[in-house]
């Protein structure tokens, strides 16, 4: 059956495309553009008049014919590239659909046909959807990598040796005499393949980050300078800042893009023991939010003890915590507890360093004097305390940062990206989706069982498990798929894709 749909968004634009795919694409396309020759040159752009049923011109546009299998879907494809009027395009589409040989395409059906006709494997087809949905540079680049086959070849690199292993074992089982010895190194081979499957599975977390963007929350005691730092990181004065503790009540969010990665940054209500009623609601919301982010950044004001820091860290629950020493432009408060923030300079953004003099108390620790965060921010171990203690996050070297002066902010951003990303660049990721991860998990579980069986059980059992692993892997590439799975996958595509 021939399918038709608009390939462009239903909005006014420079050009709008009606696309047909299937055995009757050319004939039906020519009903709309009768000036086009009966046997048009494939891939040639014809300037043609698009007409209604009475032959009256509706538009003048380009007509393209791709003869199967040399087309996106592998079938005959015709495109009418008209002026981008949604109303006009609906008229053209309606006219195509009047023909009994044509029906409207389901979501993703063009791509589904491309897959079914072997034009793309499943990972590439899904990368098409990822690309359309991408809303950060990293997401675009990762999807583009998927489209060019990065994930496909990683899966292939697993599938091929697994299939060879399976064949070797089946050979030994079927023809024990001829194939003697082919099963000698089954154990190590299974082990290696399992590790490979797990390495791929481990990229699912990154895939999630790229797809959805990372979520990062600033939290910590009241008045630590969270909102000021938030404004700095976002690049504009979004959050209210005041020297009154408890200024931020509701969590605030802003979306930024760092190294191409989409990051949703949250500023939260400061934590304290005895808040007022409304503030308590804000604090409850902070805790709730912290449980759901990818990284929690604990901003500490000067003079916080290690025990206090550890206690605040626990507020993040199971979420990874990055601890930073805020207001690093001020001397350590334990040295002069009453020292206030630079005079009247309250507003976050504008305040310049000269307004908040660097009142580093002499003798205020070795790193007091020349410290400039840009020098080597990561080496600076606060208080030198690294070992021991419960909450490890609060014990590791801390980033020193000042939202007011901007000191250490770039380094902090790099640290956050490092913690979220763990090295490498976002674009280099093989975009493993939840669906892929699920299949990979089942594959590596089967390989785990195969590994055990290779020590304690028969070759038959090992081979059976390897066969199961192959099936699960096949779901990733699409060598083994059910209609139901394809339905689920292509449902998330848009119509006309
Ligand atoms: N106008 C238009 N732009 C589009 C598409 C489209 O369908 N129409 N695409 C659709 O989503 C994407 C391009 N994808 C395509 C992929 C393969 C072929 C194709 O004709 N492949 C043949 C020939 C290859 C060749 O000659 O180099 C083939 O693979 O055999 C066309 C488009 C993005 N841009
Ligand atoms: N010297 C200095 N003062 C800062 C810095 N960051 C914030 N302040 C000041 O500290 C006070 C509190 O800053 P906020 O950013 O509102 O602190 P917060 O952590 O959001 O506070 P709550 O929302 O009440 O929890 C304000 O007077 C800021 O101007 C900093 O890096 N250095
Ligand atoms: Mg605040």
TrEMBL record:
Does the keyword section mention Cell membrane? no
Location of the region described as Disordered in the Swiss-Prot/TrEMBL record: 334-407
Q: Which cofactor does it need?
A: K(+)
- Give coiled-coil spans as residue ranges: none
Gene Ontology annotations for the cellular component aspect, listed alphabetically: cytosol
Please describe what this protein does. Answer: Exhibits a very high intrinsic GTPase hydrolysis rate. Involved in the addition of a carboxymethylaminomethyl (cmnm) group at the wobble position (U34) of certain tRNAs, forming tRNA-cmnm(5)s(2)U34.
Q: What is this protein called?
A: tRNA modification GTPase MnmE
Question: Species name for this entry?
Answer: Corallococcus macrosporus DSM 14697
* Designated gene of the protein: mnmE
């Amino acid at each position: 059956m021939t399918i038709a749909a608009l390939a462009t968004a239903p909005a006014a634009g420079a050009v709008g495309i009606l696309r047909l795919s299937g055995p009757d694409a050319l004939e039906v396309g020519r009903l709309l553009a009768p000036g086009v020759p009966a046997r048009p040159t494939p891939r040639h752009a014809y300037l043609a008049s698009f007409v209604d049923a009475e032959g009256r011109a509706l538009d003048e546009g380009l007509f393209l014919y791709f003869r199967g299998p040399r087309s996106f879907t592998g079938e005959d494809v015709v495109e009418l590239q008209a002026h981008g009027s949604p109303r006009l395009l609906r008229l053209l589409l309606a006219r195509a659909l009047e023909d009994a040989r044509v029906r409207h395409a389901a979501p993703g059906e063009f791509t589904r046909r491309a897959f079914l006709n072997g034009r793309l494997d499943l990972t590439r087809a899904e990368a098409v959807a990822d690309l359309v949905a991408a809303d950060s540079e990293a997401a675009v680049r990762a999807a583009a990598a998927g489209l060019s086959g990065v994930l496909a070849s990683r899966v292939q690199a697993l599938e091929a040796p697994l299939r060879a292993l399976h064949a070797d074992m089946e050979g030994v089982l079927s023809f024990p005499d001829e194939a003697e010895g082919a099963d000698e190194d089954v154990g190590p081979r299974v082990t290696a393949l399992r590790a490979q499957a797990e390495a791929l599975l481990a990229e699912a977390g990154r895939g999630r980050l790229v797809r959805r963007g990372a979520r990062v929350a600033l939290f910590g005691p009241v008045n630590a300078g969270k909102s000021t730092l938030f404004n700095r990181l976002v690049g504009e004065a979004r959050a209210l800042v005041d020297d009154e503790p408890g200024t931020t009540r509701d969590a605030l969010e802003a979306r930024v893009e760092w190294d191409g990665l989409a990051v949703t940054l949250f500023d939260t209500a400061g934590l304290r023991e005895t808040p007022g009623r409304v503030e308590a609601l804000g604090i409850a919301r902070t805790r709730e939010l912290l449980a759901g982010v990818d990284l929690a950044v604990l901003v500490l004001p000067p003079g916080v003890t290690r025990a206090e820091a550890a206690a605040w860290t626990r507020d993040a629950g199971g979420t990874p915590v990055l601890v930073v020493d805020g207001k690093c432009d001020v001397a350590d408060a334990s040295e002069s507890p009453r020292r206030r923030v630079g005079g009247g300079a309250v507003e976050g953004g504008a305040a310049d360093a000269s307004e908040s003099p660097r009142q580093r108390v002499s003798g205020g620790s070795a790193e007091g004097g020349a410290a400039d965060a840009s020098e080597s921010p990561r080496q600076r171990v606060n208080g030198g305390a690294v070992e021991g203690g419960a909450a490890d996050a609060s014990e590791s070297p801390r980033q020193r940062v000042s939202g007011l002066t901007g000191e250490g902010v770039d380094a902090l951003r790099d640290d956050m990206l490092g913690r979220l990303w763990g090295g490498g660049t976002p674009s280099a990721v093989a975009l493993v989706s939840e669906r892929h991860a699920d299949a990979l998990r089942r594959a590596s579980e089967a390989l785990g069982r195969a590994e055990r069986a290779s020590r304690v059980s028969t070759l038959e059992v090992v081979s059976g498990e390897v066969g199961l692993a192959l099936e699960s892997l096949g779901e990733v590439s699409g060598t083994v798929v059910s209609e139901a799975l394809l339905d689920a996958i292509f449902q998330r595509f848009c119509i006309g894709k």
